[in-house]
Structures are given as C-alpha cells and as structure tokens.
C-alpha cells in the first residue's frame, strides 16, 4: 500500500511523483503498538536488504517506546542512523540503500538508517596479474570490500581515505587513499583537484578515470598504473604514492608512475633479487625485440640486404622466391592476422577462444606459407614477436607495444634503418616530455637519478633500497634503517 507524503514540500512532492512510477519504490504505513504513534518507512526495495528492515528495525519501531522521531536512533540497533531536516537528502540517501523513517504529524523531520543490500562476488585470485608466489587476493567490484583489503594490510591511523562522488547520473563513489605522514601533499592535491574537476554523466569503471585525469590524453602510453592486486596497491601507498579506488571496478589506480614500473611485475619482489633482475632484463629485451624485429626485417630486405651474411641471405632469397608481395605487405598481412586471432580469442568464450587462438594460428600460418603468400622465415619472426609482447606484465602497456610495431613498420618501409632510428627518436622525445601527475615519466632514466636505478632495469636487494623513490618527493625519504639491514656477525664469531 502506497501512502503519499503530505503535500507541504514541493520538492518532496515532485520526488514522490517520480519515484512512484518505479515498481521497487516502497512507502509503508505502520502504527506503534504501545504508543499508537503512526510512522512511515520509505525505501527502494532493489537497493535495500529487507531482512535488515524486518529483523533489526521494524520490531523495535513497532513494539518499542516510540514517541518522537528522536527516539529512533536509540530504539534500533543500527549504527549508521542519521536525523535530518533537509529534504534534499532524501534522494541521495534512498539511492544509497538507506531507509527513511517519518512520524505522522512531523513529516518535516527525517530519519535515515542504513540497510544497504550487498550484491557482488566473493574475493578471488588475480586473473590478469596472476603470480605463482605471493598473495592470491584480488579486488572486486565492491568499494567497501576493496577498502577493507587495503585497511587490513595498512592498519595505521595515518592511512587517509577521502571519498568523492563523480558523475551527474551514475553518482559513482571514488576513494583517494594515501599515507598522511609519507605522501607528498602536492601529489594528493593534484589527484583530488583532477577528480573534482571531472564533469561527466557517468563513471562505470576506473578506466574512465585513467583517461580523464592523465597528463596527456593523446598519448598511447598509460600514465597511471592500474592493478587488481591489493598487495601492489598497499606497496605503492607505503612508497608514497596515491591510490584511487572506484566503486564498481575491480581495478585500482596508482600514481604517479614511471615507464620502467610498467615493465615490472609485482612477483619480482617475492623472488630473490638476482632471479627477479634476470627476469626483468628478459622482459625488457622481449619488449624491444617485439617492437623492432619485424621493422628490421622489412628494412633489411628492402634497403640493406648487403648487411645480411651470404649464407643467411641465400636462405631468405629461397624462402621468398615464390612470394609475389614486397616485404612490407607480407609483414602487414601476418601482423594483422596475429592481431585478428588475438582479438577473436579475447572476445569469444574462454574455451572457444583458446581453441581459435591455437588452431587458427597453426592453420592460417601453415596455409599462408604453402600458398606462397608469406615466407616461413617471416612467419617465425612474427610468432616470436607476438610471444615476446605477452611478457609485458601490465595489460595496458601490452596494448601499447602491439600498437607501436605498426608506425615502426611504416618508417622502416619508407627510409629503412634510418626510418627506424627516426621513429625511435620521435618516441623517445615523446617519452621525455611525458609526465605522470606532473612527475617525470621516464625517471630514473631521464632525469637520471642513480638512487632510483636500484629498482629500475634491475632490482637490487631490499637493504640496498633504503630510500623511497626521489621523484615522489616523500615526506619521509627513508624507509629502512641501513645500519640494521647490514649483516651482523654471529654470536659465536
């Protein structure tokens, strides 16, 4: 049974008129058995947990000593209870899972208590940043659960969580997380200001935030690190960075970041520093190989075949004897084929996608060689380049690497090795000018900082990383007592 509000407030009346069109709107009338005081409960059924209403609120309101609305917070055993006289709070509170209580005869005074329905999946293992060693927890779509995961790992009072609401329609909650005693306030102010300046209808994922607050929105390079791992977020916060968690998104954001960090897997810190440094160097070599190997093949066969050893040249000539296309078309054909297979495998269901990727690659590759469309040498090169691109630990950076191969190919076809060097100089100039939340993106390579090189191309041991990164300008540069970290003599020595 729906009983309308008394028509004293035009705003409230207009709100009720709109809400009444929805089937999940509830406006119920009750009478207290002891005091005979009549009251209304108003809520959105799809957003509230009716078990909380019927078990933790309604019995106390019906059988308790309810005389005035001020008695409600003392009667019901719910901590999140608030009394207000502002009718503008009604819409915001109702659509955040709160229940509105009103006493008949005093409808101007409002009381809200929280009965939010928690709908979401359980915490699982990371799917994009999986690691063999280390924690197996991943963020989910609930911001409360994600904040809980961060709070558990940093249980200190200095951990500050600021909450904003972004989106004129979606009203998405966004949390800024940082350590007050460590994080540079300038970084916090930059993130806060950019988030507050967002004027958009809706935010459905943290990816929207990345694109809007990045320093250069026209750059293919990701300027903010996104991750699904709570341990990586907490490590970044402790280091002096600022984290952003968006309600409804299983990926958190960390900034400022650097180019080198985007090629670092968080599993590197769970392994011995020698092993992790070796893997990191392999990863950097694989990325370089993935970008340059196909353009070098095109440039060499088009302009610089005299650089190829005679034995290898004869094998290349034999493999391309029946190929009717120039090297650039041959390379583009295979590169686009690989991208089509990768995109099809990502969009199809998991089991079907795996089959398409494996079988499609084998069938198309073999058929193209037998049909004389491509050479078997280039097929091997393209396959190795695609395999090398998969070593990038950050998904967004992997997409950038896939994209960079095409302009390098174009410049290689136009000017050979000179074109490759020219395209590399253009990319390097762009990276030097790029910033992340106002901090240098290419640090510690440029500007060169020896202290930060200890965790850049290689990762030294923890006792050699006693200082936080210089580019973060943290309030507390030291994070480890170097004297305590030194090896001490055994008691018997």
UniProtKB/TrEMBL annotation:
<keyword id="KW-1133">Transmembrane helix</keyword>
<feature type="transmembrane region" description="Helical">
    <location>
        <begin position="281"/>
        <end position="303"/>
    </location>
</feature>
<dbReference type="InterPro" id="IPR050768">
    <property type="entry name" value="UPF0353/GerABKA_families"/>
</dbReference>
<dbReference type="GO" id="GO:0009847">
    <property type="term" value="P:spore germination"/>
</dbReference>
<feature type="region of interest" description="Disordered">
    <location>
        <begin position="474"/>
        <end position="493"/>
    </location>
</feature>
<dbReference type="Pfam" id="PF03323">
    <property type="entry name" value="GerA"/>
</dbReference>
<dbReference type="GO" id="GO:0005886">
    <property type="term" value="C:plasma membrane"/>
</dbReference>
<feature type="compositionally biased region" description="Basic and acidic residues">
    <location>
        <begin position="480"/>
        <end position="493"/>
    </location>
</feature>
<feature type="transmembrane region" description="Helical">
    <location>
        <begin position="377"/>
        <end position="396"/>
    </location>
</feature>
<keyword id="KW-0812">Transmembrane</keyword>
<keyword id="KW-0472">Membrane</keyword>
<protein>
    <submittedName>
        <fullName>Spore germination protein</fullName>
    </submittedName>
</protein>
<comment type="similarity">
    <text>Belongs to the GerABKA family.</text>
</comment>
<feature type="transmembrane region" description="Helical">
    <location>
        <begin position="408"/>
        <end position="432"/>
    </location>
</feature>
<dbReference type="InterPro" id="IPR004995">
    <property type="entry name" value="Spore_Ger"/>
</dbReference>
